[in-house]
Amino acid sequence: MSEAGDKETGMRRSRSKYIDPMVDGGFKILFGSEKTKELTESLLSSILDFEVADLTFLNTEQIPDTVMEKSVRYDILCEDNSGNKYLLEMQVQSHAGLQERTFYYIGRCLSSQLGIGDKYGDLKGVYGIFLTWCGIGDDTGDFIKDFRMVNVLNMSEKIDEIRQIFINLKKFDKDVSECGTMMDKWLYNLKNMNRKDDVAFAEREEVFRKLKKYAAESNMTPDEKILYDLRVDSWYDYYRYLDESMERGVKRGVEQGMNKAKVDIARSLKALDVPVETIMQATGLSSAEISDL
């Protein structure tokens, strides 16, 4: 994959017996439905470090109130029985404004909670968890960035109910023996289960035994299979286009480099009063091209 720096992952995907969570459709199948919500609750709990339970999945497309507003389409949007909302997204390709877009998503989740006459004190928490292969900002430091609202003059004063968490799976480099927390185990599997064609920790953790079950392609419903295959085909086409574009770019660069070298040689020979015919033979340039130098 170009952004993940791992093209081999894409080549292995067709040979794996497991759904690839990097693929949009695969991620939604694993974490965006009622039948697998125990996986979603475990993943969210491990990242947020508090128990997330009794989730209900919500409509992922938010229609704007006016034609002038920007529409929103979440990967996965769910709500607990207290009204707190959770955004969960897998972002493989980088794009301009990624951090700002996700913050806008969080803002829309906040603004959509209240109607006329509702009290601002009734606002519930909004937690955005964005799993990426591309990082954000200067992308230095650890693999996780946890943004909250904080008083910069007194760091102990902060609002914990609005969080924007980015996890760069590309930078998560722990092996199985180093995964001591549930978050470590989840991130390891999200990054490696398809490449290694296995789900780690299933022998010790019930939730990963269920992940292994739900992630098996043989357990997909016909509708899920169609969605997943369409997403995989789309992904292959995208990266094939990138590869072809890179090859064309490299070829063009080589050709331009060769032409520049010929021009430089011709200019030097011309400065030495070498006959035009000799310069033509040495460089392959035409007499008109040489005379323009």
Spatial arrangement of strands, main beta sheet: 1-4-5-6-8-7
Query: How many strands appear in the DSSP assignment?
Result: 8
**Coarse structural class:** alpha/beta
Helix content: 40-55%
Main β-sheet: number of strands, strand sense, barrel status? 6 strands, mixed
What string gives the helices and strands in order? HHHEEEEEHEEEHHHHH
What is the averaged pLDDT score? 81
Give the CA-CA distance, first to last residue.
44 Å
The global form is elongated
Strand content: 5-15%
Tell me what the structure shows.
This protein is α/β, with parallel strands linked by helices. It contains nine helices and eight strands. The chain is elongated and about 85 Å long. Strand 4 and strand 5 form a beta hairpin. The longest helix is centred in the C-terminal third of the chain and has 50 residues, at 222-271. The strands form two sheets. Strands 1-4-5-6-8-7 form a six-stranded mixed sheet, with helices on both faces. Helix content is 43%, strand content 14%. The chain has two domains: 7-220; 246-291, no CATH class. It has helices at 7-13, 24-31, 37-48, 98-111, 182-192, 206-215, 222-271, 276-283, 287-291; strands at 56-57, 61-62, 72-73, 76-79, 85-91, 126-132, 144-150, 158-168.
